[in-house]
Design a protein that fits this description.
This protein has about 50 residues and is mainly alpha-helical. The protein is built from 2 helices and no strands. The protein has one domain. Helix 1 packs antiparallel against helix 2. One of its GO terms (molecular function) is protein dimerization activity.
């Protein structure tokens, strides 16, 4: 696997874990949850671009 993809994959896993933990304690509309969700979306989009 491409080294950049490996790093990105780790960042995605970390963001998912953080988002999961946040959603256990906060509303889905909480600003921290929304921010983390948007960050995860950007990481996933970047990952998809690198695969294309």
């Amino acid at each position: 696997m491409n080294p950049e993809l490996k790093i990105l994959n780790l960042e995605i896993d970390k963001a998912r874990t953080i988002l999961y933990k946040l959603t256990n304690n906060k509303s889905l509309t909480d600003s921290n949850v929304v921010f983390c969700s948007q960050k995860l979306d950007k990481l996933l989009n970047k990952y998809h671009e690198l695969l294309s």
